[in-house]
Amino acid sequence: MERFTYQEVNREILRTLNPPRKPYYFLVGGLFLAVLYAASCWAYQILTGMGVAGVMHPVNWGIYLVNFVFWVGIAHSGTLISAILYLLRARWRTSIARSAEAMTVFAVMIAGLFPFIHLGRIWVFYWILPYPNQRDLWPNFQSPLVFDMIAISTYLTVSFLFWYTGMIPDLAAVRDHATGLRQKIYRILSLGWVGSHRQWRHYTSAYVLFAALATPLVISVHSVVSWDFALSIVPGWHSTIFAPYFVAGAIHSGLAMVLTLLIPLRRIFRVEKFITMETLESIAKTIIFTGLIVGYAYGVEYFMAWYSGNRVERDTFIWRAVGHYAYAFWIMVVCNSVAPLAFFFKKVRTRLSSLLLISVLVNIGMWYERFVIIVGSMAHEYNPYSWGNYAPTWVELSIMAGSFCLFLFLFFLFVKFLPSISITEIKESLKPPARERSKA
Amino acid sequence: MSTFKSSGILGVFPFADDLLKALEELKASGVPIHTVFSPIPRSEIQKILGQRPSPVRFFTLLGGSLGLATGISLASYAHLKWEFVTGGKPVLAWIPFVVVGFEFTILFGVLFTLASLLFKSGLPKLRLPEQYDPRFSGDRFGVFVSGSGGGKEMARMIFQNNGAEEVRDVF
Asked: Cβ A165–B117 below 8 Å, yes or no?
């Protein structure tokens, strides 16, 4: 990173919050309309019934749950970058941590919507909550679905609070720079932060503790999601490898989404000085690592299917590669395990176009991975007479497209109304202003 | 912030090394330092002021322990009330309850950490203290010494001798 003064850091980052131009409003307005359309599709499904979705025996978990797992996965990079890499003192994370955290919060919010959409009878969602009731019925705390509800709601709460707490000193900087109504709003949001030595003393301590608590949480959340599958006896799901396999896949997709969003963002807001090519290269190197883990997991699944001697398991995995959904399987393998290998070449990982292309491919591949696991296994279980295929309907596809639009809508609002690069952390990475140096 | 309407003297510093020198001199002269403002956390400031580690960590421990107890108790209570045997496991199956206990540990730990951070830092507050200057969130450091008389004049001299770009009285 270039050598900046503190004032330049404030000026450059706060500049991204200046009133936007017309194309921004068109874009945000268009995304909002798309979200409204998806919401109306959900309303249609509620009024008409689950028959408008393509889920039907034997595939009772369709793309609603594919999207649920996909978005939970996307949510993992934020905490990886902001908590795990913070504890490991990886300096390259500084400029991208805030955007990745925002991505996490939005992705978990969207992920959390899909079980409700999948539920059908949304008005009885509260049955999963533990509350005293007349019939003395309680949720089964041995069920991975209840684990999931607890883990996802904890993750949403923790990632939101981690994001917001990290932003408080920056919100104070925005407040001190703003005037009028904006100043009043940011004064409330910054909670009256003044950067006194007492506040910093408690803040730094709390931030490390937040990171320390978020680190095991991020590992646990996708492990819990993987147990939704692994604790069942469905062939292709019942595997002890699922927890690390899902966590690695989640980080893989999350990092790819960070690249997909930040490459255009740094160009639009002209913040290349902060989000440098070295930062993008470091993400690409991490993607090679996660891609290798994911590729290894694919291989181990096949090995276990062969080595177990279980005919059903073997058949399931052969069918994945050559059966009805073979196209999805090969998209998954090529996009997740083969394409990221190109990052071994410096030329590829230092060129924006190739970084963006591979990151999009990984996102597509990771979506298909969830599809192959969820739909592929249910479509081809034990009894041949109950095999069957599934295809999503227009309602499901519309709601899925709406989820992507909602994610982008929230992200675009975020980059215009909140500091998308951490002012405090950037300043911390610089040498403080010193008279000795200024003389030199 | 302990007091909002403290009167005293404020020194604004453009350089961190000047600030540290001024703090050391104030400390050596026995002038009580009310507040030091800085745009980023600086361990040297905490060291000169002789501050001990924040007690926030104890609240985190308390929250985490309470969370663990809550998660395990809730799951146990629900299963004892229902007495529903699933998957051939006993009614009180401890291994699955570890997951519930773990998630509650993290949740309560974070909530207690945040609550203690806000409480100990005197947040939220809608009014900013008189001695606060908006430049402190940019690139300036500040030292506020409260009171009047000899201590205040001593502080003024130390600020001026150590490169303060602005020294002003706060009423």
From this structure: yes
